[in-house]
Amino acid sequence: MKATGATDGVRPALRLFVLHHAGGSHVLYRHWAAGLPDTWDVRLLDAPGHGLLLDLPQIDDARRLADFLLRGIESRLDDVPYALFGHSMGALVAYEMTRRAVERGLPAPVWVGVSARVAPQQAGPRSGYHELPDAELRTRLKLLGGTPGAVFDDPGLWALFDPVIRADLRLVDGWRPDPGAPVLPVTLSAYAGRRDHSASPERMAGWAEHAERFLGLRVLDGGHFYFQDDPVPLLRHIARDAATALEAATAEPSAPPPR
């Protein structure tokens, strides 16, 4: 877990946990704290087999990965309000972590942000992307973005990243929502790239059905990694939405939820 943001010794207003995409790590998000309120404690999580946890066996099941990550942050959930933000695979894992926190009686996040991941009821037939031949898989990854070009150009790097990416794609492909899963008792926002063909705004709108308070679907210019070149527009939305949720969570019980 990589921590950035609020100064040590000062109680942060909010602790934000950021969950990365398939085949990625905390590295893509390492500058985010500079664009978020300096009163926040921003924690960048790595899945096993990624980033700072490269030496751990990879987990290719979304529910088991959610369990692992939740255990890792459990001791940091009750001292200050916290929030989860996940991009693509990370959005799916954030959803599962929230479900598990609620089921186990742990503090629930005051806000959840899901990015570039279709709503659970939109999960379609298995794609089999993790089984594609190398050339076809590389072509699809290049179209999505998010993977450094050097990975495709260097056979040695590709040999390292290939099994990691395939395991993450298997995780995403194999996940299906539990029938009858209850609506999450949290505030949630969704974010989509206007030209994202894998998680279009239309397919992400259904997230409104999965949280008691839905702040809206924010559509930004770009594709699947719409924030990669300039994260500022997204970070502004995150700061505003999470602050709205935090304010509602700390308001008097009689105050109505945000709309």
Short recap of the structure:
The chain has about 260 residues and is α/β, with parallel strands linked by helices.
Percentage beta strand: 15-25%
The secondary structure category is: alpha/beta
Order of helices and strands: EEEHEHEHHHEHEH
- How many individual β-strands? 7
Which sequence of strands runs across the widest sheet? 1-3-2-4-5-6-7
Individual helix count: 7
Level-2 CATH architecture? 3-Layer(aba) Sandwich
Largest β-sheet summary: 7 strands, mixed
Low-confidence stretches: 254-259
Tally of discrete structural domains = 1
At CATH level 3, the topology is Rossmann fold
Mean pLDDT: 90
How far apart the termini lie comes to 33 Å
Shape: globular
Helix content: 25-40%
Give the radius of gyration: 18 Å
Tell me what you see in this structure.
- The model is unreliable at 254-259 (pLDDT under 50).
- This protein has a single domain (2-124, 180-250), classed as Alpha/Beta hydrolase fold, catalytic domain (Rossmann fold), CATH 3.40.50.1820.
- It is globular and about 55 Å long.
- It is 33% helix and 18% strand.
- The chain is built from seven helices and seven strands, in the order βββαβαβαααβαβα.
- It has helices at 62-73, 89-103, 134-144, 149-153, 155-174, 201-204, 232-250, and strands spanning 2-5, 14-19, 40-45, 82-87, 111-115, 184-193, 211-220.
- With 259 residues, it is of the alpha/beta class.
- A seven-stranded mixed beta sheet has the order 1-3-2-4-5-6-7, with helices on both faces.
